[in-house]
Structure formats: C-alpha cells, structure tokens
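Predict the 3D structure for this chain.
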Amino acid sequence: MTSIGIVLSMAANMDLELEQLDVKIVFLHGDLEEEIYMHQPEGFVEKGNENMVCRLKKSLYELKQATRQWYQKFKSFMVDHAFHKTQADHFVFVKRYDRGEFLIFLLYVDDMLVVG
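Done. Predicted structure below.
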C-alpha cells in the first residue's frame, strides 16, 4: 500500500484537502463482457419452470469477474473525465488543472481517497 502512504504524505505536506469515500454495492456496477447464467434465486423459483436459469446482465457479488468489471467501469469513467492513470499504480488517477491545481483519486476495492 505504498501509494496510500505517498498520497497521505502529500496531503499532509502540502496541506491538501482529503476525503474518504465508500462506494455502496460496488460490485453491482460492473458490466459483463460474457454470457453468464445462474440458477434461479431461492424464493424466486417459478412453479413449473424450476429448471430454468437466469442470464445475468450486470455483475453480482462473489462473481469471479466482479472486481475486474468494477475497475473497468471506474477507469472508463475517470478517463472520460480527463483523469490519467499513473504508471506506478493503476489504481491512482490524477487530473491536473491550468493553475497548477490537481485532484488525485486513489481506489482500493470499494473505497476511495480524494486529495486536492
């Protein structure tokens, strides 16, 4: 977690604003790239169609792809808003402004640090 230490150190040394965010239901935001099917959830099984399955349109918790799909969604949003991923850590995004100001987003699973 070197990046967290560096970002916190920068915030302290440069007297920057620091906010911590928690993204709710984070793994439900990812879009799936492949077809994934699951058994009908308990309590939602339709009588006469007990052997039917559900095709997922979005990611779910405990799905192998969930973490990666959330990151892809987040990265796409950040790039669309002129943030650049750092070379040293792909979970740190920086946006610079004309007057020398900047914002740093550091993502760790479903939490974020925002410094600027």
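The radius of gyration is 19 Å.
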